[in-house]
Amino acid sequence: MSKAKGMRHRGQRKSTAALSEDGEAGTPTAIGTPPEDPQPTKPGLDGALVVHPPKRIKRRRWFIAGIAIGVLTALSAILYVNPTQNTHISRMQELLGDLDVMSIIPDSLLPDDFIQDMTKLLALDSHPARSTGEFEPALSLAKQEGLSKKHNVILVPGIISSGLESWSTASCSRPYFRQRLWGTSTMFKAILLDKDCWKQHIMLDKKTGLDPPNIKLRAAQGLDAADYFITGYWIWGKAIENLAVLGYDSNDMSLAAYDWRLSYYDLERRDQYFSHLKARIEISRSAGKKTVLVAHSMGSQVVQYFMKWVESSAGGNGGPHWVNDHIEAVVNLAGSSLGVPKTLASLLSGEQRETVQPLASYLLDHFMSRKELARVFRSWTGLPSLLPKGGNAIWGDLDGAPDDPIANSTDINTLVEPANNTADMPQYVSFGGQIRFDGDSDSSSGLHNQTMQDSLQLLFSALSRDELRLLNRDYSFGVFRTAKEMEAHKNDHRVWTNPLQHQLPNAPGLSIYCIYGHGATTERAYYYTTENATMDDLHDSSGVPAFKIDRTHRPHVSNVDIGIVNGEGDGTVPLLSLGYMCADGWRKPLFNPHGVRIVSREFVHNPLAVFKDIRGGAEAADHINILGNHDATADMLRIVAGQGHQIQDRFTSNIREYARRINIP
């Protein structure tokens, strides 16, 4: 077999991580076109000249040229955006002087796969998506409804949204001083050309959970800390534009960026993050304005933690009425209040399909091993805050799950109940088994199918002693069923990230809005294999995860794709986590004894075709693009303009039926 054929065999299966979960797909445009040759002519039968089309130039020649040009273009874009000092220029010159294309292409990929994916993803850096309309819907709302700014606004980003910049002066750090090693093209440059140095910076110390010796990475500050991940790929950019139409500027709108790698406890201990946030809100209140906290994804948990911290004598010591006196509303955009199952996969086996920025996901998946990824993920003490909460009470057991599909439902993501299946209809897999094995057990390890509680215990057994110690120091994942339990733990910071173990603040004047999308295929559970490993291998000093997702094709089940059991949600967060607390939990006296106003706003994910808008357009409602959704943005604008009382519940999913299946008083 020739080398080329061997490469094609090894690269037969393309990685799904190269595609963003907002539906990016399609074939990139050609990198180059052949030069125009003069069209040959010769006399026809009647003496007239007949024009013959030029002969087709062999595609292989242009394919090879495309590879060379594409790699050079991609690397040039990565290395020359925001260039840093002569060291990087010299490094680029050396690279171009003796470029070995095959050495930077992973063995598992075809050369054309790599070039097509890289050029397609880098295109995001040069073609901003603007088809939803500049400054809309704010321009229309300001004209039609007379909206203008009223409350102070603080934006709280989610995980991996805030840029992280280096303040280290150690030898390997110096070329990156004050450059972002997370976010911007500097990150991609470091992963491609200086991976060991990048890992030293991005990982936290395994014993302290803080900075490693001689390393200092800090969250970028200001509105541009999370407005765009890289040029053209907006995160908060559209929200900031719309708020500016109502009259907001940097005096009454800010972005509370944070180092999302840290546990919330360490955010205060190292950076005094919550103290600074409290002071910022108090300054606004002294000027006569209350604050609206607009949070996205993990930011919703950061806000929950803050509201408990600020009133606690063990935290900000603001007293029981501080939230009511200072905060007008909390807007949770795609909030992950009950966690995300894909966090379990990231920590257990070093596997992830992230949605924030597809090129970042691509580089992590193809230029780092599962061993490396698992070590990086497990060092981030903030990541376990996204582990699913509530155990089997929320996520189900081997007999079924609350969000298993409903028979005869009109919802776009529901499937047929097993009782209605016929021999020629594929069945669905219940979500109650969080980790599954073919045949219900794994012969090598002796493990059987695992519920959510079982799966978390499996993860805990895989963590090192220090990793488990820090996790137990910072988090709790259970359910309290009595007010007495919550009162006993009201000053325990471990429960402040879990809405099932604490009560909302004493703030009857506060409103909480849960605004999210649904209808996008979302990871809910997994098929795993142990690759003939035993339980002892989980503690192997090499750190190689013994488990990995079993990507065997299973055509007999309709909701399983390459080992991932798919359910309903926004493409990242399942519907249960997005909606349960607002649809049901926070409407119960147990969790909301003081009558905080709760409003749910659901929007069906309805993206445009990718060739019309790569980000999905004004009705895209998946996890990131909800930040550009016109209806969701309109709700946010009305709330900050003091018109939140006009916004009422909007349910378009089965979340209330799923909530009725959950047995929590």
Tally of extended strands? 18
Structural class: alpha/beta
Instruction: State the major sheet.
Output: 6 strands, parallel
Give the percentage of residues in beta strands.
5-15%
Round the mean pLDDT to the nearest integer and report it.
80
What can you see in these coordinates?
- The chain has 22 helices and 18 strands.
- A hairpin with a 5-residue loop joins β1 (about 40-45) and β2 (about 50).
- By secondary structure, it is an alpha/beta fold.
- Mean pLDDT is about 80; it is low at about 1-60, about 75-130 and about 410-425.
- α2 packs antiparallel against α3, α2 crosses α4 (about 110-120) and α2 packs across α6 (about 185-195).
Gist of the model:
The chain is of the alpha/beta class. Helix content is 32%, strand content 12%.
Labels describing this entry:
alpha/beta; disordered N terminus; 32% helix; 6-stranded parallel β-sheet; 22 helices; 665 residues; 5-stranded mixed β-sheet
Q: Which SSEs are present, and which pair or pack?
A:
Layout: H1 3-10, E1 41-43, E2 49-51, H2 59-80, H3 85-97, H4 111-122, H5 138-144, E3 152-156, E4 164-166, E5 180-182, H6 185-193, H7 195-202, E6 217-219, E7 228-230, E8 233-234, H8 237-245, E9 253-255, H9 264-271, H10 273-286, E10 291-296, H11 299-311, H12 322-326, E11 327-333, H13 341-349, H14 358-367, H15 370-379, H16 391-395, E12 435-436, H17 452-462, H18 465-474, H19 483-488, E13 511-518, E14 520-529, E15 548-549, E16 560-561, E17 564-569, H20 575-583, E18 597-604, H21 630-640, H22 655-660
Parallel strand pairs: 3-9, 3-10, 10-11, 11-13, 12-14, 13-18
Antiparallel strand pairs: 1-2, 4-5, 4-6, 7-8, 14-15, 14-17, 16-17
Helix pairs in contact: 2-3, 2-4, 2-6, 6-7, 6-14, 13-15
